[in-house]
């Protein structure tokens, strides 16, 4: 006759190996993190995704579960990143008139901003002696995660490291943006929003909607434009990056 | 309900087409990004967003944050790399984000100003 302790171990062994447990756990932890973030005043420093990552990693380490086992369950959520990227076409289409009106200014400043974001990050980390795989994971960090992770994988970076760096960039952008807007005396909401979406993706877009609806729409545009340009140009740029760095 | 399924079929078909073309032509960018451009082109040709697609897309994008979590947890696999490179990473992130925000804001406001002045002159 099995003892109580054995039964619990058996049930745990069954659950820990099934996708159901970690799928459910991810949803529960994320919902809890949303609540915690709201209780803390919605601060971008403690973004729900960062809180969720902290809690889930702690649970996995405490229960001695490896990432592959966790991902067997969580992959069902992860899979939706692809369709979500495709869905970005809808806000892009909805803002097409504003885009057409300012097409060249947006393209030129968008390209300059996206290139600055990627190249300066890689250069600084390179000069400070970071590993190549770190550099490749860092390069697409300014764009929205589904695109950034796809690009990182293409470049030979680590998509999961990129995901974390993207989240950090978003939080850093939200902390820095208000001060920079004041310092540079920017009054045009279109400019504020576009720059925030471009350099701090979804985090910046959410914050821009707090300034005004116009800022929010242009942030969505900045996010999409940075994503497209990074996805198409960064893999090409990285091909000649080693020559540029003399390596 | 069938509208939801149609919307899912549209999104997945665009992604599938994007992935297949990227593999086929050995393109250097992610398949879903090409899928987004295919959908954008299709919307331009069609001249409007079907209501079910608009709703499904906004729902999906409204919960974008959740979708990052599984990959973000993968950070636990890279603790070694992060511990080793944390200073270059942090400095790179802070400086590059400051520069990107500054360059974009200054350039865009300058270009908008130039354009409005040209409009007044012309």
UniProtKB/TrEMBL annotation, chain A:
It is a multi-pass membrane protein. It is found in: Membrane. Keywords: Membrane, Transmembrane, Transmembrane helix. The chain crosses the membrane at residues 12-36, 45-63, 75-93, 102-128, 161-181, 217-241. PANTHER family: PLASTIDAL GLYCOLATE_GLYCERATE TRANSLOCATOR 1, CHLOROPLASTIC (PTHR30249:SF0), PUTATIVE SEROTONIN TRANSPORTER (PTHR30249). Pfam families: LrgB (PF04172). InterPro entries: CidB/LrgB (IPR007300). GO terms for cellular component: membrane. This is TIGR00659 family protein. Its main location: membrane.
TrEMBL record, chain B:
Keywords: Cell membrane, Membrane, Transmembrane, Transmembrane helix. GO terms for cellular component: plasma membrane. The chain crosses the membrane at residues 27-49, 61-81, 87-108. PANTHER family: HOLIN-LIKE PROTEIN CIDA, HOLIN-LIKE PROTEIN CIDA-RELATED. It is found in: Cell membrane. It is a multi-pass membrane protein. The lineage of its organism: Bacteria, Pseudomonadati, Pseudomonadota, Gammaproteobacteria, Chromatiales. This is Holin-like protein. It comes from the Bacteria. It holds the Pfam family LrgA. Its main location: membrane. InterPro entries: LrgA/CidA.
């Amino acid at each position: 006759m099995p003892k109580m302790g054995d039964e619990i171990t058996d049930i745990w062994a069954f659950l820990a190996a099934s996708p159901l447990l970690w799928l459910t756990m991810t949803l529960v932890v994320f919902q809890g993190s949303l609540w915690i973030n709201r209780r803390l005043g919605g601060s971008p420093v403690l973004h729900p995704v960062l809180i969720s990552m902290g809690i889930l990693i702690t649970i996995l380490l405490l229960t001695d579960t490896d990432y592959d086992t966790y991902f067997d369950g969580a992959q069902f959520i992860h899979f939706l990143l692809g369709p979500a990227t495709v869905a970005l076409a809808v806000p892009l289409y909805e803002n097409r008139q504003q885009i057409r009106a300012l097409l060249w200014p947006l393209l030129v400043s968008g390209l300059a901003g996206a290139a600055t974001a990627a190249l300066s990050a890689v250069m600084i980390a390179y000069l400070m002696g970071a590993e190549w795989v770190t550099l490749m994971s860092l390069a697409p960090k300014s764009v929205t995660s589904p695109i950034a992770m796809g690009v990182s994988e293409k470049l030979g970076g680590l998509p999961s490291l990129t995901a974390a760096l993207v989240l950090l960039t978003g939080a850093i952008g939200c902390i820095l943006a208000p001060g920079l807007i004041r310092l540079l005396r920017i009054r045009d909401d279109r400019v504020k929003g576009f720059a925030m979406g471009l350099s701090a993706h979804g985090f910046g877009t959410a914050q821009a909607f707090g300034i005004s609806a116009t800022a929010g729409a242009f942030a969505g545009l900045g996010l999409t434009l940075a994503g497209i340009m990074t996805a198409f140009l960064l893999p090409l740029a990285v091909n000649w990056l080693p020559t540029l760095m003399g390596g | 309900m069938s509208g939801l399924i149609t919307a899912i079929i549209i999104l997945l078909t665009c992604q599938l087409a994007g992935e297949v073309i990227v593999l086929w032509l050995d393109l250097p960018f992610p398949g879903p990004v090409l899928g987004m451009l295919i959908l954008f082109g299709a919307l331009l040709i069609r001249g409007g967003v079907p209501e079910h697609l608009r709703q499904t897309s906004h729902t999906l994008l409204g919960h974008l944050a959740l979708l990052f979590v599984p990959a973000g947890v993968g950070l636990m696999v890279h603790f070694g790399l992060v511990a080793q490179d944390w200073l270059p990473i942090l400095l790179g992130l802070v400086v590059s984000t400051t520069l990107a925000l500054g360059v974009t804001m200054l350039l865009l406001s300058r270009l908008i100003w130039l354009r409005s002045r040209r409009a007044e002159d012309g």
